[in-house]
Fold Glutaredoxin.
Amino acid sequence: MSVTQNVITLKDEADLRKVLEKNTTVAALYFYADWAHQCKNIGEVIDELGQKYPQTPFFKIEAENFPDISEAFEISAVPTVIFVKGNKALDRVDGVNAARIAQLASKYSGASAGSAAAGDSAIRASQATLSAEVKQDLNIRLKELINRAPVMVFIKGTPSQPRCGFSKQVINILNDHSVQYGYFDILTDEEVRQGLKEYSEWPTYPQLYIKGELIGGLDIIKEMIEGGEFDNSIPDSEKLNNKA
């Protein structure tokens, strides 16, 4: 698919500033990250919408490369699409929701009812395809995250600053038992936060994985400690007191 001139991969913050300062048109800001698999499909949606609405500027913004812009628009996860006029945010879509992005693009691009209706079936068809592709890509990413370290914990916040009491208790347990572990802050990525619940069939956080296998949450960990099973479940390579 060819990309039109109104779909702009941002290289210089000044290019975005020029459009926003005009304050005469609605622009779509698509925040993405190259490492996020779920962004690929939304990027293709943006290209398609750019062709459909040539009068609307669509900016592709790599969130980590433009921290000031990301902070200004309160970007905490990708993909995120924000429709703006001037410096005012009119609407936003957090996460993978191609149908909603297309709906807002139609709304703010001043498309006629007829042209919008004509595209409805195409949008529904593309959304169905996207949903299947996105789910597959997300599952691949979740598997990679789960296997990032032999002991992997998914928590709210970070080990130094847990954002919930349950996460804090799990981190304290791992530290008290001298376990070396990797972690992922689920508050930084809504797709992971929701997707992992379905992937693991475990509805709450924190979640602890050992060698790619789900152990469970805080209650299960406590039961394993009481039964003397927890220390035995940790690979020797991940026990800090076994390291020279």
Remarks:
- The CA atoms of residues 52 and 119 lie 9 Å apart.
- The longest helix spans residues 113-146.
